Amino acid sequence: MRNPAPLILSLILAAVAAIFLIRKPAPPPPPAAPPAASAADSTKPAGDAKPEPETPPTTVKTDTQVAEAAAKTWPQEQSDIPADPKARFGKLENGMRYLIYRNAEPPGRVSLRLHISAGSLMEAEDQRGLAHFLEHMVFNGSKNFTPEELIPKMQRLGIAFGAHVNAYTSFDETVYMLDLPETSEELMKLGFTIMRDFGDGAKLDAAEIDKERGVILSEKTSRDTVGYRLMEQQFAELLPGSLITKRFPIGTEDVIQKAPREKFVDLYTRFYTPERMTFVVVGDVKPDEIEQRIKDSFSSLTNPTEPGKNPDLGPIKPVEGLQAAVFSDKEVASTDLSLVSVRPFSRVPDSTTRRLSMLPLGLAHTAIGRRFERLAKQDGSAIANGSASRDELFNYAELGSFDVTVTDDRWQEALPILEQEFRRALEYGFTDAEIAEAKANVLNAYQQAVKTEPTRKSDSLATGIARSVNDGTVFSTPETDLEIALKGLDTATAETCHAAFREFWADQGLHLVLTTKEEPDNARATMLAIYEESRSKPVEAPEQKAAVAFGYTDFGPAGTLKSRKEVEDLGFSQLVLSNGVRVNLKKTDFEKGAIRLTTRIGSGKLTQPKDTPGLDFFASSVFDAGGLGKHSVDDLQQILAGRNVGTSFAIGDDAFTLGGKTTPEDLELQLQLMCAQLTDPGYREEALSQFKKAIPMIFQQLRHTPAGPQAEMESWLHGADTRWGVPDEAKLASYTLDDVRKWLAPALTKDYLELSIVGDYDESTLLPLLYKTFGALPARTEKKPDLAAARKITFPKGAAEKTFTYDSKIAQGTAMVIWKTEGLRGNTKLFRRLNLLGEILSDRLREEIREKLGASYSPNAGPSGSEGLDGYGYMAAECVGKAEDTKKLADTATEIANLLARNGTTDDELDRARKPMQATMEKMKRDNSYWLGTVLAQSQEDPTRIDLIRNRDADYASITAKELHDIAVKYLGQKHALKVLIHPEKKAEGQ
To answer: Do both 742 and 800 map to the same domain?
Structure first.
């Protein structure tokens, strides 16, 4: 169960993220195209490539035939790029490929991925949605497992459904993922049996299919968003006549509700074939043993007499000239303008030449993004940000996009900016400084990939390999990738990047796209007229910008060590410096060449001024966007290009935090940057201007998405305390930089400060750097104030029912049931038991609400609380489903909890909840983020945490079913339940 506070903040920040500059920007996609995209982004493979010579724009039949042939070999067999020699590549006689990679991080674990080159594009018209439906059905009864036994069997062996076993379906692929917490014979046998059953052992029982229909419809409801609906419209406009526009993976309600079993069987038997399968095994394994296990498990898979074929996706006919399009929806978060190029894409084998050809355009697009950042910060600018990109769509279409987000719907003013920056790049290209900055970031990305290669995590590595299967990229070493990149970077200049930009964008027909809340009258004609008028105005060459040096290297006389204490059993040190700064240090080898830092300062929201709802959100936003006194954020991006430094500032319930990640080589610069932010934050007007641009987007989301009701619920749960209140638009816009400075300055300059550092450092180098940075700061308060009154809030009393609504045509509802508990502060042992109780309740919700009723895709439960507030804690159950079902979902979840309180839990349920949790906790011991955030971060502020960490594993192991029953009796049950219903407001007829 997620704490609502970070959930709501993340939803709101989505609007601001579109505007505010991230201090350490991601470099352009490197030419090696290392697999790292998420499943949600699987329709947009990363990479900015120089286009190959165009083939006649007919259909993609030839390209899919190439893809089919390539799927039967490994990419390196058609490439001059060598594959990673540590990987073992193989192919069974039935055509199934496999890749085994021995990787010891984390030790004693293994990750399995089954990639099937089939997705929603392979469906017939009367099968729309069944590729995704099949992904569900393989869990609901197979050759070796009944529907009721698979998940419990996995849980008993430490495998949590959703956490360690999962799957996704895209347009052209389906991937099954299984992470095993150990490599015992029992677990390996289970893992391979499960994966083999996924391949051809699904029972596809008609009764089970009928039971799952509601789950799929619930998932469809949960994924229905304005962005999704607009994407459907945009695909239809940009790819008219393409099969893609009619094969979105979630499918159609009619097919989901009515498709007979034979349609599932048809899709399964024709496309789940060994010739379409690639099995990936990454982990602490012996390749010889794994290879034999693969042969024993999968060699008997057979291909059908008439296997399914890749579909003809339809023609792509690029437009001529400029064609305007408008997409509107009153719920859209922002107004955007784009120039979009669409053309056929011809797949060619991965090669050194191919990778090198991708680099100049990527550098050029990065430079465009930086230009838009600077333009957005100009006083009164009509744009909030902008970008340029190139994407490949399923080896079928090549898309270029040149975009800006518009300020306050001022699209008529923003359109000339879009046109003129596009033309400026076409006519004049880029400056040496722009390309040098982009090159520095790309080179650094490759160099860091080489340094961190020894400690790559098996699960992410396996997922990345699986997601690269359809791309046809060679699984090469980071060293090889760097070697190729160096060749490209050595020859990349402002001139070659200009040439690449022109080759991709010049003389192309373009779509001019406006996305807005309400389509203006005669919009298309107006857009074309404004664009044409803008073209008549001359543009000038971009201005060269001189580089400047970092201005914060001296913070005064270096401090000294006042005291040091070793926590030997946990392997870390606690230091106090002469100025009162606390420091916690733990050296690890979990991430080669990586160092993580976090600083807790002062008392956070406990000190927030009265009647200032949203000030914390405003303050954290403008603080990050304000840069430093001597350097704007734009200056910092240029100064820090190619360096592994960056920070993020946040405001928690009881502390301000400043964190970052760096390398041993850049550790001094990272410490200097953090100290500069403490001593000389920028508080720049450009940050205030950027935030004000975001305000309409923020409130658009609050009005038209569940984020608004969830923010209101959070305020309600905090007793309407204004520190957790939802400001109105005028209030949020009224805050000034002085408001932020007055609140933050005392804490940043003199309040209690505890710095924690975890990672791959050399202490003899680190300590002198600490003394002359953090040790040189002015003296800090040695103890935090109690602030007892500020820690008190009034939690709503149960039982009650409360409804929160928002304005949307999307009929999605959320039901939450909340039971007050003791607060997290001072009650760690109780919350461990609540964690287990939440897992058990989640499993019961899954069985009843998902599996039996089919009313919610992913019902879940768990505890939440605050370490900064007294008595603030609760258990919550959450179910997302149809809006009209929210009351029924809340009542059902309440009754399930009532039964748990009445009858208790079984030892088997406890075991199935505890085993996966223990497996995760064991893995966390080799995770720097765990040591930094959970163990070290406030270990001097609250020394009791150390004993709690020492006893964590033993405490979890000691928990009994009776203890959980007693806790359920005390907290759960109808008389304690707060039912929260969130759904769109009901409209009067005719509205």
So the answer is: no
